[in-house]
Amino acid sequence: MEDAQEILNWYILAGVDELCAQTTQNFLASEKAPTAQPQTKILPTSEKTRPATTLLAQTTNVACVNAQDICAQAQTLDDLKALLESFEGCALKFSANSTVFGYGNPHAEIMIIGEAPGADEDRIGEPFVGRSGHLLDKILQAAGYNREDCYITNVLPWRPPGNRTPTDSEVAVCLPFLRRQIELVDPKILLLLGGSAAKALLNTAESVSQLRGRVLDYIAQNGKVYPSLTSYHPAYLLRTPAQKGKVWIDMLRLNRKLAEM
Ligand code: URA
Fold first, then answer.
1. Is the pLDDT of residue 23 over 80?
2. Considering only CA atoms, which of 96, 144, 134, 138 is closest in space to residue 116?
3. Once rounded to an integer, what is the mean pLDDT over residues 81-89?
4. Residue 127 CA: which ligand 1 atom is closest?
5. How far apart are the C-alpha atoms of 156 and 250, rounded to whole Å?
6. What's the pLDDT tens digit per position in 130-178?
7. How much is the pTM?
8. Pocket perturbation via mutation, ligand 1, pick of 100, 230, 233 by most ligand atoms within 8 A of CB
9. In this structure, what is the dihedral angle of CA atoms 94, 98, 100, 103, given to the nearest 10 degrees?
10. Cα maximum dimension of the chain
11. From the CB of 140, is ligand 1 less than 6 Å away?
12. What mean pLDDT do residues 99-128 have?
């Protein structure tokens, strides 16, 4: 029994915090190793995007085109949520417990976008409900809002194992769902929390420190322009509390911008 406890402690120290299956499986021995197969639709050559060079790039391209086609069908947030729940083009879905869709006021003026669900969000199925979420709630309260006033979502709807940074291809495949969510909520302003959200929507390599304080336009698929402000992610603030004052300044900027609109 003590041995089992020691082994468990060792796994926790090594960063293992998820059980993927009830029984261990030897993928090398198995003839049919279960791999997460993106839901691919073979498109006529004319519809394909420019030729890709690697299998990953080709698979990502096909999954992105599929995701865009699927998202175009959604006329409401409920449609989009149902379509996302049946979408199998991103392998993260197969290691996650929940598909974490957006939460809050579907007609919100402020849409808040983070990176990806963490362990608590994956368990509960709602964005920003763990430690980062509690801090976000406090930030919103201090600025005169609560989470129900806003619409809160993430770039990715599935938790990357161990909270690792999402890969570019995971972001690319999931992005059409975020872009369509923005069109359907149609907020007045976007608040991008952290570098992943800014990089995904503003197509920039600039850091959050460089982006802060600037109102930058995000252009939706339908051509509509949404102003955005970028600020630090609450998870970063939990690690670096000295930066909290800067987020307060960013929230004042957000309020000023909304008041002008
Ligand atoms: N971090 C995020 O970016 N999103 C969440 O929902 C939770 C933590």
1. no
2. 96
3. 95
4. 6
5. 24
6. 999 999 999 999 999 999 999 999 999 999 999 999 999 999 999 999 9
7. 0.80
8. 233
9. 170
10. 64
11. no
12. 98
AA letter at 45: T
If you average pLDDT over residues 198-208, what whole number do you get? 96
* Distance, first Cα to last Cα, the chain: 64
CB distance 160 to ligand 1 below 6 Å: no
Chain centre distance of CA 259: 28
